[in-house]
Amino acid sequence: MYSLNVPVPGRVARLASDLFPYLAPFDRVRDRHTLVCKRFEDADLDRLREQLRRALAGQPAFEARVTDIRFFEEPPRGAAPVVYLAVESPGLLDLHRALADEFGAIEGIEGDDYVPHVTLARGGSVADARAVASQPLDPVEWTVSQLDVYDSSFRETAGSISLPA
Fold first, then answer.
1. How many CB atoms lie within 10 A of CB 40?
2. What does the DSSP assignment read for 88-143?
3. Of 8, 67, 98, 149, which is most buried by a Cβ count within 10 Å?
């Protein structure tokens, strides 16, 4: 599976590292922090990159902001709960909707169900998730000027697309 990801700044990774003592009780703690814009199941990489270049032509850079810590008590996929950094970004929401319209939405996690977030940890107790979510944090803001095509099979970026400022 491929995804179109928003690169997150180092400040977000540092924020996640600062939260590690609260994340330790979870089954899986993320060491790579990503913000998924759109997923693509059963796609051919070369064809997908070309389709994305066309779909993203003229897409302006946009702002994103980590606002607080939240959790999905019952996520549509995988172990629960999922603790995450909530991201506010009208530009990202608009882009996701446009891509979901063009490429289709994965039921339960995209389209109207899409929640921009950076996963921190999953699998554990709801009480532990509440404890993490109660931690204060200073918001992190950044300008998204690039999107990355991520290959989950190889766990690496397979290409990048710059957005005009």
1. 20
2. E-HHHHHHHHHHHHHH---TTTSGGG---EEEEEESS-HHHHHHHHTS----EEEE
3. 8
Closest CA to 162 of 143, 149, 145: 145
Q: Which two tokens stand for residue 21?
A: 């003592």
Lookup: tokens for 137: 């944090």
pLDDT of residue 8: 96
pTM score, two decimals? 0.95
Pairing of strands 156-162, 146-151: antiparallel
**Amino acid symbol at 43:** A
DSSP letter (8 states) at residue 164: -
Place of tokens 């606002």: 67
Hey, how many other C-beta atoms are within 10 angstroms of the C-beta on 148? 18
